[in-house]
């Protein structure tokens, strides 16, 4: 009986990974999907017009053995022994808020001044504020007013409405910062020791479409890193 069940399980996994070569099913961390990938998808489509991306936003790290997903973008430490993982970008959290929140108020000059405002948290990363303030010399945040949201997009939306100060990776909030909808009230940042990774199951042959997406996203990330380094050099 167990052998039969094993054979059914193996056949099911093979069926789920039978390639439709023109399609790539992607499970993507929601913040990365909406704030980085979606604004750049046209770059990929222009270069690969015959490839169809089927995108799913998911905060869960899927098990490829029992999923129809081909690839995924995970947020984490990169320690997934059964997966191939390609580092995309580190995550450094900075405080961001609406400029209208600061109007008519004293300038924020040190980390402790942030406690005069509501701190906006993301539920799955609820220790980041404490870590950032501790490394900036503020050991306790007991007296701070707090507000918690389930996602980065909701937290940034609340910040743009002037409800408080959120933490966000600068790269994922680049549009709002560029257009002045958000500002960084203090030049401090937290290295979260985590990053976004492109991952897929070890032992599974990649289709040409999967290879095309992998090559494209890695090239995009390398180009962004070069631009960032050049901008840093010119600002010195």
TrEMBL record:
Molecular functions per Gene Ontology: DNA-binding transcription factor activity; sequence-specific DNA binding
Keyword terms, alphabetized: DNA-binding, Transcription, Transcription regulation
Species per Swiss-Prot/TrEMBL record: Neptuniibacter caesariensis
Domain LysR substrate-binding: 20-221
Pfam family, one: LysR_substrate
Keyword Kinase on entry: no
Membership in a protein family: Belongs to the LysR transcriptional regulatory family.
GO terms under biological process: DNA-templated transcription
Protein's UniProt name: Positive regulator of gcv operon
Keyword DNA-binding belongs to the record: yes
Entry superkingdom: Bacteria
